[in-house]
Each structure stands twice: as structure tokens, then as C-alpha cells.
Amino acid sequence: MTLLEINGVSKIYDQGENKIKALDNVSLKIDDGEFVAIVGESGSGKSTLMNILGCLDTPDSGEYYLQNKNVGLLSEGELTKIRNKTIGFVFQSFNLIPNLSARENVELPLSYRKLSKGERRRLALKALGEVGLCDRAEHRPSQLSGGQQQRVAIARAIAAQPPLILADEPTGNLDTKSENDVIRILTKLHQSGRTVVVITHGKKLARIAGRRITIRDGRITGGA
Ligand SMILES: Nc1ncnc2c1ncn2[C@@H]1O[C@H](COP(=O)(O)OP(=O)(O)OP(=O)(O)O)[C@@H](O)[C@H]1O
Ligand SMILES: [Mg+2]
Question: What range does the domain containing 207 cover?
């Protein structure tokens, strides 16, 4: 089954004189359960594409269907709901909230659900267990290593069990051991049926993904 599909998507950043075509007529289809790596040089449009796939940004032209819904026709409220239910995000810079514990960070996206406090806690601890961090639940981000912080961010992304994980350079700031941990976790998520889409410069991660999409100057040049 098709999970998402974009048709003829373009995105132009207009800075007066200087118009940058970050995405140029991009079309792409991703099925349920795929593990996709998006690769390409710096500035080629990968994050722009990821932001559109994650409903964090809208294209200037073209269409986006996520689970058969035309994203362009949704209201801001519907979009927030769909994003929260369907997508788990992982970023290069972890984006954890410093004054919350690991568990509290993981509980955050669950707060949009109508769940009891106990249930939220249970799901957060389960997600932390899946990334091997049960024993760090009450640590603050500053008390964790970079690799551990990224695992907390992954736990936060999966706590609400979204079908799609979008990760933008998840191993970009990590040492080799932590990189391997993150790769192992993403592989496990894929094996458990999640769709994983990951932007990466890392050769290892790109190799493990079942499909590699190459993007260059805002155009897909391979793998779509
Ligand atoms: N908010 C913005 N305003 C203006 N230009 C932007 C903006 N965001 C991105 N761009 C430009 O759009 C192009 C694509 O940027 P994008 O961030 O998608 O690249 P990327 O492939 O993710 O690069 P990197 O590997 O360095 O993260 C670049 O030329 C960039 O300078
Ligand atoms: Mg980027």
C-alpha cells in the first residue's frame, strides 16, 4: 500500500533578487513498510523535501498525499492532528527540552492524546526501553551523552507508535558507536513494520536502507 505520494512538487525560496529553487518538480512514492535513505550533497534540497513530507512546510506547487489524504486541502488543525498521529521526527540536533527528564521529553508528543498520566508514563517508559534507556529515564538531557540523547529523541518519535519515522541526519552528530546504536534501532523499527525515511550522509545507514533516493539541485536523480 502507498503510504505517501508527492507529484510535481516545487519549492522556491524567494529572497528578493535571489530565488532559490530548492525543489524542482519532484515526484516520489513511498510504500508502507519501506526503509528509504535520501542522499545528496549539502544544499541539494533534502531537508526541504523532508519538511514537506513531514507536513512542517508546504510546497509552492504540486500535490502531497499522505495516507491518501490530500495534505494541501487540510486545515492547520487537521494537519497538526495528522502530523502527531502519523509521523515521528528525529533531527540531527536531538531537539530535546533541557529542563525536562528523558521520560518527560518522551511523554510530550503523547500529551496531545487523551491518555491518563499513568498511561503516558507507561508508554514513555516502554519507548525508552526499546532504545535501551530504561535506566536513564529521570536524567536530564545534559546528563546524557550525545548518543543517549539521540536515543531519547527516537523514543520520543516512536512513543505514540506512528507508522512513519522521518529522520534528518540522525547520526550526523554522533561517534561511531552511537551511530551504530541508532542504525540498529532504526533497523529494528523497520523490521517491526514502521516506514523509515532517513536523510543521511552516512554510508552505513544509506547501505542498510532498502532503497536510496538521490537528490541533486532540487531534483531526484535516482531511486524514485
Ligand atoms: N528558509 C530558507 N530560506 C532561503 N533559502 C533556503 C531556506 N532553506 C533552505 N534554503 C536553500 O534551499 C536549498 C536546499 O536547502 P536544504 O536545507 O533543503 O538542503 P539539504 O540538502 O538539506 O542540505 P544539508 O545537507 O546541508 O542539510 C539550499 O540552497 C538552501 O540554501
Ligand atoms: Mg539538511
Answer: 33-58+72-222
CB 195 near ligand 1, within 6 Å: no
Q: Whose CA is nearest to atom 16 of ligand 1?
A: 45
159-209: pLDDT as tens digits: 999 999 999 999 999 999 999 999 999 999 999 999 999 999 888 999 999
Within a domain: residue 204? Answer: yes
Separation of CA 118 and ligand 2 centre (Å): 37
CATH number, domain of 147, equals 3.40.50.300
pTM of the model: 0.94
Query: Cell digits for 80?
Result: 497538526
Q: For residues 109-137, give the mean pLDDT.
A: 93
Which segments within 121-218 are labelled E, that is strand? 164-168, 195-199, 211-216
Domain count, the chain: 1
CA trace torsion 93, 97, 100, 102 (10° rounding)? -30
The Cβ of residue 177 has, within 10 Å, a number of other Cβ atoms equal to 10
DSSP 8-state class, residue 154: H
CA of 120 to the centre of ligand 2 (A): 32
